[in-house]
Amino acid sequence: MAMTITEKILADHAGKKQVEPGELISVKVDLVLGNDITAPVAIKEFEKIGVAEVFDRERVALVPDHFTPNKDIKSAEQSKILREFSKKHNLANYFEVGRAGIEHCLLPEEGLVGPGDLVIGADSHTCTYGALGAFSTGVGSTDLAAAMALGETWLKVPESIKFEYDGEMQPWVGGKDMILHTIGDIGVDGALYKAMEFTGPAVEKLSMDGRFTMCNMAVEAGGKNGIIAPDETTRVYVEGRCKRPYRFYRSDPDAKYEKIYRYDAAQIEPQVAFPHLPENSRPVSEAGNIEIDQVVIGSCTNGRMEDLREAARVLKGRKVHKNVRLIIFPGTPKIYLQALREGLIETFVEAGGVVSTPTCGPCLGGHSGILARGERCVATTNRNFVGRMGHPESEVYLSNPAVAAASAVLGRIGGPWEVD
Amino acid sequence: MEIKGKVWKFGPDIDTDAIIPARYLNTSDPEELARHCMEDADPSFPARVRPGDVIVAGKNFGCGSSREHAPIAIKAAGVSCVIAASFARIFYRNAFNIGLPIFESPEAAGGIGQGDEVAVDAAAGIITDLTTGKTYRAAPVPPFMRQIIAAGGLINYVAGKVRGNA
């Protein structure tokens, strides 16, 4: 029977010839992930199970990235729980500050996730790895605990929705705009419980970085996973990088979809998602005159090399508006170093921005860039919920890195073509 | 299990940042989390919620983060159950895993009003609005989820499995 890429990966990890949407299956996991917010709860639960060891010391990844470098004593205590657990179980993939980056930038970069893998992580943006042609989804801490003990988890096979993007993307349009446009179209629960499969010529033209961005935000439409069939771009990325063997899956031509959405990428302008939901997206040309106080460029959505290069292209030789604070946080130490070597960091600092260590801090209002009452921020992050970046009466506008950089220069929301 | 309590009504898309803002997640102590539960949706909630109270909300309750701190905070605040038109996927799973009863019913979510008294027959999935006298049916819980509940949550279920394998 014909299957989608999601169904094929799930079937193979369940040891079955085929699976159907709605079926409850038990699957082997290739990697499980936790961070300094979710892992402390998971470790406490793990210890109640009564197993002496994790199922595989190579396949448990712990990344303290949310409140690190630790912002206060409480977060230091949380991180210490990870550190001690990692030592006790001799975990191969614990990443200490200085070697740690934002988990969803770090794990693919380190080759810990590959095409065809099944990954669960106690972080909702674990769906990012679908960009590699893996099945990956976010779970809670208790699910992480159980998977750390058993090396397996249970899943309900999701129905798949296909999103097809034809046509040529316009300049300054990337994965972020395609996904914001899509969420704007279907809503924040438009793919609730479903697999979101992104296809079509415009997706095939996206770099790996652009694909990570798209799949990262599948959860923002309620999706269980986002996925893109691996191709030559994927092969170039994973070759020599992946630590484990990988496998390319793709959907059968006659696979069943719950729904198919078709978009003309040529019609998609750079997007801005207005407060307080990612679905409130509209073209930047229709944003109106919105003055801003802060710009944040980075996160697991847009903190990769391509993103920093795009921001630097806009900021090169320009100055951040006097009323604006620009904060840039590269996704990983390697990205930071590459940006340094390419002179991007110099560009950012010369423009009047600050460059932070890799951290999730500002994205979730944790630390390093908290908003005061009434302040407005343009961010390349993934969520603009009430209070997401600080005060409940502050506002977050989501955009791609070029729009964010241009807005930093303009002092208001605007496109990169407006800075000259 | 019979649940009875007074209703706190919320709208659609109540996200995990509204349920428990990330600024408090440098701890996982349930009591401390409960002190900030729902505060970005209704600042008066933590001080005024009473043991047994029920949250009723619109579609996509619990969207956003995977943080289990969200259902933990709700449970620790004394809320007996959440009734919503629909739940975000990870929240749904987390609630079962930690033993917070939740019920999916668009009709109940639409019909029940702020401050109403409701009774829920958890086994039968029947929600009664004692204030209006109307009854609603919740979506059935998948058999596997019932096994997890019967075992007393996922960790007990897994611990049982581990002992069985030994």
TrEMBL record, chain A:
Enzyme Commission number(s): 4.2.1.33
Cofactor: [4Fe-4S] cluster
Gene Ontology biological process: L-leucine biosynthetic process
Pathways per UniProt: Amino-acid biosynthesis; L-leucine biosynthesis; L-leucine from 3-methyl-2-oxobutanoate: step 2/4
Keywords from the UniProt entry: 4Fe-4S, Amino-acid biosynthesis, Branched-chain amino acid biosynthesis, Iron, Iron-sulfur, Leucine biosynthesis, Lyase, Metal-binding
Enzyme class (EC, first level): lyase
Catalytic activity field: (2R,3S)-3-isopropylmalate = (2S)-2-isopropylmalate
UniProt xrefs under Gene3D superfamilies: Aconitase, domain 3
Superkingdom of origin organism: Bacteria
Aconitase/3-isopropylmalate dehydratase large subunit alpha/beta/alpha domain sequence ranges: 7-411
One term of GO molecular function: metal ion binding
Entries under PROSITE patterns matching the protein: ACONITASE_1, ACONITASE_2
Free-text remark on how the cofactor is bound: Binds 1 [4Fe-4S] cluster per subunit.
Binding site for [4Fe-4S] cluster: C300, C360, C363
SUBUNIT field: Heterodimer of LeuC and LeuD.
Matching PANTHER family: 3-ISOPROPYLMALATE DEHYDRATASE LARGE SUBUNIT 2, HOMOACONITASE, MITOCHONDRIAL-RELATED
Record's function text: Catalyzes the isomerization between 2-isopropylmalate and 3-isopropylmalate, via the formation of 2-isopropylmaleate.
Family: Belongs to the aconitase/IPM isomerase family. LeuC type 2 subfamily.
Protein name: 3-isopropylmalate dehydratase large subunit
Gene it is expressed from: LeuC
Automatic annotation (TrEMBL), chain B:
Reactions catalysed, as given in the entry: (2R,3S)-3-isopropylmalate = (2S)-2-isopropylmalate
Function: Catalyzes the isomerization between 2-isopropylmalate and 3-isopropylmalate, via the formation of 2-isopropylmaleate.
Organism field: Pelotomaculum thermopropionicum (strain DSM 13744 / JCM 10971 / SI)
The name this protein goes by in its record: 3-isopropylmalate dehydratase small subunit
Subunit structure: Heterodimer of LeuC and LeuD.
Ranges where the Aconitase A/isopropylmalate dehydratase small subunit swivel domain occurs: 51-100
Molecular functions per Gene Ontology: 3-isopropylmalate dehydratase activity
Enzyme Commission number(s) of this protein: 4.2.1.33
SUPFAM superfamilies: LeuD/IlvD-like
Gene3D superfamilies per UniProt: Aconitase, domain 4 (3.20.19.10)
Top-level taxon of the source organism: Bacteria
GO biological process: L-leucine biosynthetic process
InterPro entries, per the entry: Aconitase/3IPM_dehydase_swvl, AconitaseA/IPMdHydase_ssu_swvl, IPMI_Swivel, LeuD, LeuD/DmdB_bac, LeuD_type2/HacB/DmdB
Keywords: Amino-acid biosynthesis, Branched-chain amino acid biosynthesis, Leucine biosynthesis, Lyase
Class in the EC hierarchy, top level: lyase
